[in-house]
Write a structure and sequence with these properties.
Helices cover 43% and strands 2% of the residues. With 171 residues, it is an all-alpha fold. Helix 2 packs across helix 3 and helix 3 runs antiparallel to helix 4. A two-stranded antiparallel ribbon has the order 1-2. The protein is built from eight helices and two strands, in the order H-E-H-H-E-H-H-H-H-H.
């Protein structure tokens, strides 16, 4: 059960921290873990309790906790959350709450296409010179669609019999 708790610890430790290795967790991510896993319920365990326990288990001048310190914090929060149970039983219940949980990203802004965006980005509705920038499937042609490419074959533009001179002369 502790290995699953350790994996959850690592997932929350690196969440939002690009430089984190997953071995130490800061107070913000510790609070997030407690909230997302249902340990903090705002009745028996509040955010203040979580902050106090974090400060209690971390080293005096440190800002992060290791997995061993995390286990001590979970024992304390387990006794507060599951009153009347033995410390080991409370810890098992805490680990059961943490099982398979990932940091939640609710409330994160998602890209939306509303209103005229789909109409403006549909290449099939383009007209004039803009229409020439896209092929039949709607995929852009790149530089060929933006610039007039010169024909360097030697024939005058618009001449329909290009490449037929040699055939006429050999008859």
């Amino acid at each position: 059960m502790a290995s699953e708790a350790e994996r959850t610890f690592q997932r929350f430790a690196v969440f939002g921290e690009s430089s984190s290795s997953g071995t130490e967790m800061n107070n913000k991510n510790f609070s997030k873990l407690c909230k997302d896993c249902g340990i903090m319920d705002d009745k028996t365990v509040t955010s203040t309790d979580v902050d106090i326990v974090f400060s209690k288990v971390k080293a005096k001048n440190a800002r992060t906790i290791t997995f061993q310190q995390f286990q001590e914090a979970m024992k304390e929060l387990g006794q507060k959350q599951f009153k009347g149970k033995s410390p080991d039983e409370a810890l098992e219940n805490i680990y059961r709450l943490m099982e398979g949980k990932d940091p939640a990203t609710t409330g994160v802004t998602k890209a939306m296409t509303v209103g005229g965006v789909s109409r403006l980005t549909d290449a099939g509705k383009y007209t004039g010179t803009h229409k020439e920038r896209f092929d039949q499937s709607g995929k852009g042609k790149g530089i060929a669609g933006r610039e007039d490419m010169t024909d360097s074959s030697g024939y005058v533009s618009g001449y329909k019999g290009a490449g037929t001179y040699d055939k006429k002369g050999s008859n």
